[in-house]
Prior knowledge:
Elements: E1 9-12, E2 15-18, H1 19-34, H2 38-42, E3 45-54, H3 64-67, E4 69-73, H4 75-86, E5 98-111, E6 116-128, E7 131-146, E8 149-159
Parallel strand pairs: 3-8
Antiparallel strand pairs: 1-2, 3-4, 5-6, 6-7, 7-8
Amino acid sequence: xxxxxxxxxxxxxxxxxxxxxxxxxxxxxxxxxxxxxxxxxxxxxxxxxxxxxxxxxxxxxxxxxxxxxxxxxxxxxxxxxxxxxxxxxxxxxxxxxxxxxxxxxxxxxxxxxxxxxxxxxxxxxxxxxxxxxxxxxxxxxxxxxxxxxxxxxxxxxxxxxxxxxxxxxxxxxx
Length: 174
């Protein structure tokens, strides 16, 4: 994503979407994920949405589909991921990791008639099997206003790490 304008609102689908509204949406998502409410998380997506985590060598403007990714889920794979994480078949997350997310520096930018871009910084703290890890990076989202609130069209988590430690797993939603 190129430089982001720090606008306080965008006009989209005939209504004004404010930065505080987007911040509340992202904070609610963080809480949903920290409480392992994957049905609630899935409800934050529009049908046909994507969820992506590019590899650590990702650069803005690159396509994660062409340059590699840790996660490159279309709508069907997002739903399959939720189903698996809710089951006992997710051995890497049974029992669940303890996570705590911090979201900051939310910025709204480019918009079309039906969607707009959001950038934000994140830190996800994860405790699992006696280890404590911090995942740091930024979000590059495309959001859509609906009658039921904001929804993800694209949810992209870009890690700021040079690399992940040997044996590191992204078995939870980043």
